[in-house]
Amino acid sequence: METMFRDVSFGQRLAYQNVVSSRLKFHYTEMGEHFDRFAARIAAKGHNPNGPLFYSLNNVPLDEMVDIEMFLPIHEDTFAAEEGFRFHSYFDVVPLLRGVVRGDFEAQTERVYAELLATLEANSLEINSPFFHVVHKDPSPYASVFVGYRDASQSDDDPALTSPESLSVSVGSGLT
User: Rg of the chain's alpha carbons, rounded to an integer?
Assistant: First the structure.
């Protein structure tokens, strides 16, 4: 598989253990507020982050309303059940195409989406996951944008879809 963009790469994976998640719908301008509140509620319960905050964008926000699931890996291997939160003992999505957002997040994210979609099209691949965004803050802020893919020529009942090259989303849950 080939890419014509410097910051786009195939064969990536998102994998974390002990992940807390919450899914919400809100206006896109409220994202920072919701991310901060999500992380603060987890910390208030005595849990410590063990990886970056990441989220999936589960809609095309034509009306500026986003459907987002936020995820945060924690050190602890349990999480008390709470309204609006889910605990996953593991989170694993593979294979993924990855792009990098630097600078003006809003404008550059659109550019990265276009690069990812053009790369998929040029390789006769189709999307089979939401876009995942991993926010990195050190040493300088940037975000990785991931999207799952599969060969567009394979039908849904093709046995090749069970091969390692097909998307695998594994999410274990265990509420305690």
Answer: 17
